[in-house]
Every structure is written in structure tokens, then in C-alpha cells.
Amino acid sequence: SEALVLEGIEKGYNRGKPSEVVVLRGASLTVARGEVVALVAPSGAGKSTLLHIAGLLDVADRGRVVHAEREMAGLSDNARTAARRADVGFIYQFHHLLPEFSALENVVLPQLANGVAKAVAVARGMALLERVGVAARAGHRPAALSGGEQQRVAFCRALANGPKLLLADEPTGNLDPGTSETVFAALMELVRETGLSALIATHNMELAGRMDRIVRLDQGRVVA
Ligand code: ADP
Ligand code: ADP
Predict the structure, then answer these.
(1) Which ligand is in closest contact with the Cα of 88?
(2) Distance 38 CA to ligand 2 centre (A)
(3) What ipTM was assigned to the predicted interfaces of this complex?
(4) What is the DSSP string of 134-186?
(5) DSSP-assigned letters across all residues of 39-72
(6) Atom of ligand 2 nearest to the CA of 96
(7) Could you tell me if the CB of 112 is within 6 A of ligand 2?
(8) What is d(CA 156, CA 127) in angstroms, rounded to the nearest whole number?
(9) Is the pTM of this model over 0.80?
(10) 206-212 long-range Cβ contacts below 8 angstroms, 24+ apart
């Protein structure tokens, strides 16, 4: 069964204005349950737009978005936000951790917001940090961590509430090649262990080649 289906997605900005830009022109793709798909495209091709639509942060002009057989079109704003929080974990090129909180707190806070009891949230947070090898840094603020450590903490935060679908936009794009390699390996291990389905945008063909499948975004459409 499919974790994610995008069908005929069309999206433009500034519609009807001289500055109109049409980004997606009928993009379709699926991510099967447990599958890790690489999304490869030149910069500006619409990867972020596609990921935001898949993750319910943005709404397509046309087309279908389906999460685990549940149709997302026509949901109210509140229902869409609830579905996003329940279904999706996001990772970006930059970690976006809260600077005034520790690494552990950054992984605990989204769980508290989701109604998880504090002791449970702390235990799960520590377990996640351990799995990616940054448990020893749990009490440090993001600024005290290396770029690779910051990104590992961001992975843990994205998985804190047990999403079914991981959407990542250049998750190692800000790291030097050596760090990128080890951080990517940690991410893939975490994804495989948790049986997550993932759509991971990258420019790095070597990393893309280690995912289950590669799709390309070309002229607003997805090609295999
Ligand atoms: P990518 O992630 O592949 O670099 P994006 O999805 O960020 O591509 O952007 C695709 C195109 O849409 C670019 O030309 C970008 O300038 C344009 N774009 C993105 N967001 C907006 C916006 N909010 N308003 C207008 N144009 C936008
Ligand atoms: P909200 O800001 O609506 O409360 P959540 O706290 O539920 O959103 O965030 C869920 C996920 O969506 C987080 O991983 C967060 O980084 C991401 N996210 C929320 N809003 C945006 C946005 N405007 N742009 C990019 N990512 C966002």
C-alpha cells in the first residue's frame, strides 16, 4: 500500500499577475509503505514546493494528495493541520532547532505539545538521541553542537511524534562531504529501523543512489 500518493499536482505562485510563475504542471508520484524515495531536481525546479504540498504545509492549485489511503483534498485548515502533525515529519537543510533549549528539550517539546506525558517524552527523546549517537550532547544547546550533531538532533525531533511519512529537503546539504556521509547513514538507519516511508530531496547523486528509488522533477513533472 502507498504511504503517499501525489497525483496531477499543479502549483503556481502569483497566479494571474505579471509575476506569475508556474512551478508544478501535473506532478505525480507515489511512496510505498517503508520505501525511501530520492527526489532529484535542479535548484528552482520546485522540490520545496512539492514537499510542502506533500506535507500539507501548502495547498496545490489542482491534484490529489493521499496519505496512507486517506484523501487530503477538501479538508478544513484545522483538519489539514491535525493530519500534518499526526502524519508527517520534516527535515530541512538547516536544523531550525530552538536556540534557547537543549538538544533533548528540542526533541521533548513537540511531544509535550502532542499530549505525551513528560517522563515518556524524555525517555523517547533520549532513546532517539542515543540511536543517532548524540545522547552525550543531550543537555547542550544547539549552538554548542557541531553541524552534524545539530542535524542529527533535528532528525530526532522530526521523528519525535512517530510520523508515518518523513519529508526531507536537502537534509545534508549544509554539511561538508565527510559529515554528510555519516549523518546520512545515521538518518537511513533510523528510517529503516522505524519502518518509515520517506521522500528525500537531494542534489547528491551518490546519496540518491543509496535510496530505494530515484525520481526526477523536470519541467514541473515527475519522471522516473
Ligand atoms: P526548489 O526547492 O527546487 O529550489 P522551490 O519549490 O523553492 O524550488 O521554488 C520553485 C520556483 O517557485 C522558484 O522559481 C521559486 O522562485 C518560486 N517560488 C517559490 N516560492 C514562491 C513564493 N512564495 N512566491 C513566488 N515564487 C515562489
Ligand atoms: P505549527 O507551526 O503549525 O504549530 P507544527 O509545530 O505542528 O506547526 O509543525 C509540524 C512540522 O511542520 C514541524 O516539523 C515544522 O518544522 C513544520 N512546519 C510548520 N510550519 C512550517 C512552515 N511554515 N514552513 C516550513 N515548515 C513548517
Answers:
(1) 2
(2) 22
(3) 0.69
(4) -GGGTTS-GGGS-HHHHHHHHHHHHHTT--SEEEEESTTTTS-HHHHHHHHHH
(5) EE--TTSSHHHHHHHHTTSS--SEEEEEETTEE-
(6) 16
(7) no
(8) 9
(9) yes
(10) 207/38, 207/172, 207/180, 208/38, 208/40, 209/38, 210/184, 211/36, 211/37, 211/38, 212/35, 212/36, 212/37
Helices (H) and strands (E) in the chain, counts: 7, 10
Q: 533533548: which residue's cell?
A: 104
Which residue is it, cell 535542479?
42
pLDDT by 10s per residue, the chain, length 224: 899 999 999 999 999 999 999 999 999 999 999 999 999 998 899 999 999 999 999 999 999 999 999 999 889 999 999 999 999 999 999 999 999 999 999 999 999 999 999 999 999 999 999 999 999 999 999 999 999 999 999 999 999 999 999 999 999 999 998 999 999 999 999 999 999 999 999 989 999 999 999 999 999 999 98
Cell of 151: 542535524
What's the Rg (C-alpha) of the chain?
Answer: 17
Q: Output the nine-digit C-alpha cell for 95.
A: 536544523
